[in-house]
Amino acid sequence: MEFLNLSPVRLPDRLVELRHRVRAFLHEEISEGRITPHCDQWLAGWDPDFSRRLAERGWIGMAFPAEYGGSAEGALARFVVTEELLAAGAPVAAHWIADRQSGQSLLEFGTEEQRKTFLPRIASGECYFAIGMSEPDTGSDLASVRTRGVRVDGGWKVTGTKIWTSGAHHAHAMIALIRTEPLGESRHAGLTQVIIELPDPAVEVRPIKLLTGEHHFNEVVFHDTFVPDSRVLGEPGAGWKQVTGELAFERSGPERILSTFPLLVEALREMNRSRLDIDRVRLGELVSRLWALRQMSLAVAGRLDDGADPATAAAIVKDLGTRFEGDLIDSVRLMVGVEPDLDSLQRLPRMIAEAVLHSPGFTLRGGTNEILRGVVAKAVKVA
């Protein structure tokens, strides 16, 4: 089955050297106190200064052509950099969505004016994007979009609500999926992607706080928000095809595996310091699952680098990866016997607390695991 092609990828020497450079940079950042490792930093770690320092080294926009401010290194180079950033618990949320998928959508579907407006700023770590897909009361049923775009002179008036919109209170723009034609026999028809620049007085951003009290998610309400024709992404009515292609970038990356990896590293350090007996069977199970998932995620990156659309394979990686992230928390707590404490001055109790409080979202964000299994089952049936 071609859609399940996850052939192993061997990284060339230049990317191994790149990995060592990123590790050295992160070691200096942490040792100098400029950043502190945390869990789930690709969503919760908003640090524009750190994003700019990465951009100065050419580590944002690595899959963008040089003419748009990127380094044209490709998806595998980006994989290496992001894997190291996630493993170190670095704060990458500010640029993450723009670099991971919004920029890729602009490259594939955007006009030349849109690319020149946004891509160089993304690559310099100065332009942040949000994703306008999910809506209230619809779960992971993306085709049930009710946010509407009505044709007006020179553009569209957008009315409706998006929810779980990561970083919308900081973002400079969001790509929203809206319905621009009446609902017909096919729910997938008549959908369009638009770029909504922020802030906008006709866009209301309402915070949704996490169990930790952090403000990361939002509900975003459009009150007859005007979107000019120049900010339609791709063709009107082609939104479903565009957005499903985008999901391969969203679902398959190392962030679906490594959100809690910094916790495992810190737990091993604590076991070494305290001379605790290591449960080798449990640890071996974790490491073997991690390695297998890492190889799968890397294989998807390789296919993206080749210009393929591995959406089904990405759904499998996301399902298995996010379940692993939750299992890792439980295993660490059993191995070290440390209780979570968000206010602790010690790193391990704090990181356990962060991971526990963030864990309910692991299997929800990017599409629930139940929906992803349906995607895979449908692909198998068709094949």
Features:
single chain; 383 residues; alpha+beta; four-stranded antiparallel sheet; 8 strands
Description:
By secondary structure, this protein is an alpha+beta fold. The protein is 47% helix and 14% strand. The protein contains twelve helices and eight strands. The chain has helices at residues 13-31, 41-44, 48-56, 75-87, 93-109, 112-123, 239-251, 261-274, 280-305, 311-336, 347-358, 369-382; strands at residues 129-132, 148-152, 155-163, 173-179, 191-197, 203-209, 215-228, 232-233. Strands 1-4-5-8 form a four-stranded mixed β-sheet. The chain has a four-stranded antiparallel β-sheet with strand order 2-3-7-6, with no helix packed on it. A hairpin with a 5-residue loop joins strand 6 (203-209) and strand 7. Helix 5 packs antiparallel against helix 6. It starts with 12 loop residues before the first helix and ends with a helix. The mean pLDDT is 90.
